[in-house]
Amino acid sequence: MSLWLRQALEGVSTRCPPLSRQRHADVAIVGGGYVGLWTAIELKEREPGIDVVVLEQDICGSGASGRNGGYVLSWWPKAVSLTRRWGPEVARDLIQRSDRAIDDVATFCEEEGLQVELKRCGWVWGAESNYYSGAWIPAVERCRELGVGDFEYLDRDKVAALSGTRLFVSGVLDRTAALLHPGRLARGMREAAIRRGVAIYEQSGVRRFTRGRPVQLDTAQGSVIADKVVLATNAWSASIRELARSIIVVSSDMIASQPMPELLEQIGWRDGAGVNGSQTMVDYVRTTLDGRLLAGKGGLASAYGGWVSERLLRSPRRAAIVLANLRVLYPHIADLVIDCHWSGPVDRSCDGLPLLGSFPGHQHILYGIGWSGNGLGPSRIGGRVLASLALQTRDEWASLPLIGDPRRDFPGEPWRFLGGHVVRSAVRRNDRAKSQNRRAGRLVSAIAALAPRGVED
After folding, report:
1. Is the pTM of this model over 0.90?
2. By CB distance 3.0 to 4.6 Å, which of 50, 126, 267, 368 could disulfide with 164?
């Protein structure tokens, strides 16, 4: 269990026992993370009388929603890719929607009285070496052309003031970003959904579901007959045949120090901005309100197909790699004691943007996947889109260009898993070389280029 979820469960919450009978519903949502819960909340706010059921295989928030770094970011780093794919007007619209999603999350937490430790402290995209310096410039300049975002270029001293380390040679500050406690948000959304009349069944993993209408979803002890289904299963979507080749599942490993507010004060890390590096296997670090230092790294492991094993949820070996990176960033903190470590599965799409839509020939089976490690804010958009599709509402959300049929961007198994190992090895070598201000070999660089980018594609 992550530190986030452990802390979130310290408060009293409503019991959601497993499904133990057959029941009917208008909409059944598979997955009790951000996407599933936002969809459920949105459905009940639009149509209070609708019968909505959420089926969660563990407890709500136990997947990526309670295992992420707590960064609430927009899609501005995708500005170049969005413009290239859909043109400037669509790019501007999607970035603005993702900016507003950050405000929407903050407003929701305030209105619901959720104590999620939200801070509008910004996000720093930094360069670990001169080789990476300026990696953000194309996206920032495109955003300025589009009239979106609020940025400040940073030199080494300014990055150090925001991150407590002088390892980064330069960076850019995105003032629109926020940090929060992701576990408390997930559990708070669970309570908000229950208050609106959503029926949530935890420890109720869906073993199989039919494709006809109505859909029958079977769990270990019961079943749901539903007119519409929303699949919000994140990395576990790779086990569904229609979605298996749309995503690749990789790990994001995190460690948390014991509280050390005095040490953080000594190194000058007072503002608490979230910080990312520029490597393809992204390093990220932040502080918490109780004075902990949190660090993570993405992409150190991958899953075979849709099998999210225990190894993908927790790995001492990968945690040691994250700790080693953290000690490089903060060599002056000699008394760094790690309290816990965990990992989370990331459903990485090819371009880093979510995939929303319905199964071909089965418009009643919807999906929202591919959040690529940046789903905390954009999942608010996903919930609105999926609610509109479920209600067949012809509105602005049901017409976003993100909506489409499942894509087949990745090869099937075992080639995806085997190829992933080769590419990941090349990425590690390429990242290491660039961090040392040198080029990797041509073959290594060519293979590493096959991997989806860490921040911008």
Report:
1. yes
2. 267
